[in-house]
Amino acid sequence: MTAAILLAVYVVVLAGMGPGVLRRVSWVERAPRLGIMAWRSLTAAVVGAVMAAGVAVVLPASPWGADLAHGLHACPVMLRDAYAIPPGMPAVIASVAAALLACAAVMARLIHGVGAELVRDRRERRRHLAVLRMVAHRDERLGVLVIDHDAAIAYCLPGRAGPIVLSTSALAALDDRRLAAVLAHERAHLRSHHHQFTAVARGLRRAFPFVALFATAEQEIDRLTELAADDAAVRVSDRLTVADALLTLALDHSTPTPAVAAAGRRTGQRVRRLLARTPPLRAIASLTIGVLARAAIAAPLAVAALPALLVIILD
User: Fold this and answer.
1) Per-residue model confidence (pLDDT) at position 164
2) Are 30 and 273 in contact (CB under 8 A)?
3) How many CB atoms lie within 10 A of CB 1?
4) Which end of the chain is less congested by CB atoms within 10 angstroms, N or C?
């Protein structure tokens, strides 16, 4: 029971304090890829801790508890007592039933929310690609699809062999340097599979709309994927050119829903960040953040397994 209580406290602390901490620290914008990892780890840790708490409550009263004890070469009675709920049959039955219902509800909402979002996202991309095949022509030199449009549009359609799409107005407005920066930005989205990160974040928000953490995580992951793609563009161009390209596209911009675009979302903030020339994180700082992000996910498993480990040691 102690493990379940600790995991419940862990969930409350992470969900309550985690978003505020990540939104205040400066390294998230300096290293957006690490920021994406941190937000994904935070959401995964919360979901994992809820599930682990349910398992910790159900385990001693289920037939799997004895099987686990034999598998670990531990005393079944000691293992049951390590996870046990305080004495009282009504309390045991009520706690186990509540834990089972909670686990089932979390899994059902998780599968429905995230699964439905991934399916919907893929369906919209297929529809959009079908339209592009009818109205766009391929520019073999650039390796992009070109559509006739009065607005300066540049976006990529994620997925396997997803195309980059440019409008004729965008090609007219961008010189070679700015065009190279825009293409590098879109290729970074495709290469890093940013659409999967944002789709899962949307799915979690849909699955648990009453949890503020997931709504905040969706917004931040969406924002940070753009910053990460901007940084990728800077590596093949320079900050001024990337900022200039963003402003050029933002002056006249419209992007289809299932697409990921170079401009149109928080352009002013992104341009200011590019012009600020903030130094990158040191390697040791990046390594530390990466370890902590993974530790946040591993912690629920460690807490849930701790009573069993103690039984093995003491038995």
Assistant:
1) 94
2) no
3) 16
4) C
Tally of residues, the chain: 315
* Residue 199: CB atoms within 10 Å: 21
pLDDT in the model for residue 263: 57
Q: How does pLDDT run across 139-166, given as a tens digit for each residue?
A: 999 999 999 998 899 999 987 777 999 9
3-state secondary structure of 153: coil
The pLDDT assigned to 250 comes to 84
Q: How far apart are CA 241 and CA 229, in angstroms?
A: 14
Residue 58: the pLDDT is 66
Three-state SS at 277:
coil
Which positions of the chain have pLDDT values less than 70? 1, 58-102, 252-265, 305-315
pLDDT given for residue 185 in this prediction: 96
Distance CA 40, CA 11 (A): 15
Measured in Å, how far apart are the chain's first and last C-alpha atoms? Answer: 19
CA distance 227 to 250: 15
DSSP 251: T
Taking CA atoms, 183 is separated from 78, 154, 155, 262, in Å, by: 61, 8, 9, 9
Burial group, residue 278, by CB count within 10 angstroms (0-12, 13-18, 19+): exposed
Cβ neighbours of residue 79 closer than 8 Å, sequence gap 6 or more: 60, 65, 68, 69, 72, 307, 308, 311
C-alpha span between 115 and 44 (Å, rounded): 16
Name residues whose C-beta falls within 8 Å of residue 53's C-beta, 6 or more positions apart in sequence.
3, 4, 7, 8, 11, 99, 300, 304
Residue 189 to residue 129: CA distance in whole angstroms: 17
φ/ψ of residue 282, rounded to 5 = -70, 155
